[in-house]
Amino acid sequence: MTHNNNNAVSRSNDPEQFDLLDLVMQLWHGKKTIVTCVVVAIVLAVIYIFVAKEKWTSTAIITQPDAAQVATYNGALNILYGNAAPSLSDVQSRVIGRFNASISALSQALDNQLVPEKLSIEPAVKGQALPLVITYVSSTAEGAQKQLNQYIRQVDEQTAKELGVDLKDNITQQISALNDSLGNQEKVAQEQKELRIQQISEALKFAQAAKVVTPQIQQTQDVTQETMFLLGSEALQSMIDHESTRPLVFSPAYYQTKQNLLDIEKLHVDPSTIHAYRYVMQPDLPVTRDSPKKAILLILAVLLGGIIGSCVVLVRNALRSYTPKS
Q1: What is the pTM of this model?
Q2: How many CA atoms lie within 13 A of 60 on its CB side?
């Protein structure tokens, strides 16, 4: 028993043993230093709060446009391509996809500026393409809301203009294609007319050679190219004169092509009638700023000041009690 008590006493007198009570007493005696460090940290935090640039984030949620917002564009595509035109849902998806690409490019350009701006767009629900969340960070709440609204409107107008330019190019190409088609059909009709006159002329030669002047057959519907000379030279000459002055004969497809050409030539789509998105939530006015956070900064200042003050007290006491070993 005596041996064990002596061991306990020796361990308690060992200077390398950690004494919690002694640590607390050291901190208590150095409380002024600790409080001073805490006060200094709080003052620095307050200065930072007033000096640091504030950050406010405005958020908007958008989705694909309504049918009415792309009605003129969709109608123009239907006139241009008829049954081959994309469906309304395809048009809506393409338009919002183009808007997404444009605002992503704008976000990259703003981030690469000398003074970067934070504009971002991402899906509202992970794994789903729509709706999209667009955010913008500014130094004031009103500024964030106003600038976000401006950038969305700017990209919308740019997208509408690009769609208008694409549509104009498509109209030009389609008009050229239809004119070529009409030209080809007219050429074919002219060749058919010339071939018909040539066939009658050949029959007239045979009739004159055979001295057939008057018709030798009663049912003209049974006449073929080989028996046409039996109509007689007088009838055949009359047919040639008639075919020479007769206008070209076109198929219904020619007149349908002509109608399509007239419809397309009258097409005019105002880009201001095209909108590439629809708001689910308009840019909001943020009520809380992202940074600096006053409460969090003050709490961190108190903790950091207390830690620094405690370290100062402990290090100072350790240096005072330090005795070098011989």
Answers
A1: 0.67
A2: 23
pLDDT tens readout for residues 125-176: 888 888 999 999 988 889 999 999 999 999 999 999 999 999 999 999 999 9
Closest by Cα among 144, 11, 133, 142 to 62: 133
What's the pLDDT score for residue 109?
93
**Start-to-end CA span in the chain (Å):** 35
Percent of the chain predicted with pLDDT > 70: 88
Give the up-direction half-sphere exposure of residue 168: CA atoms within 13 A in the CB hemisphere: 10
Answer yes or no: are the C-beta atoms of 261 and 175 closer than 8 Å: yes
In CATH, 53-292 is 3.30.1890.10: yes
Mean pLDDT calculated for residue range 182-189: 91
Q: Which pair of tokens denotes residue 245?
A: 């002055």
Average pLDDT over residues 43-69: 83
- Nearest to residue 275, comparing CAs of 96, 75, 69, 62? 69
Domain boundaries, the chain: 53-292
Distance CA 108, CA 118 (A): 9
> 152 near 62, Cβ under 8 Å?
yes
Distance CA 283, CA 275 (A): 17
Mapped onto helix, strand or coil, the DSSP state of residue 134 is: strand
- Give me the helices (H) in the chain, please: 2-12, 20-29, 31-51, 71-81, 88-111, 141-210, 233-245, 252-265, 294-321
Q: What is the DSSP string of 17-44?
A: S--HHHHHHHHHHTHHHHHHHHHHHHHH
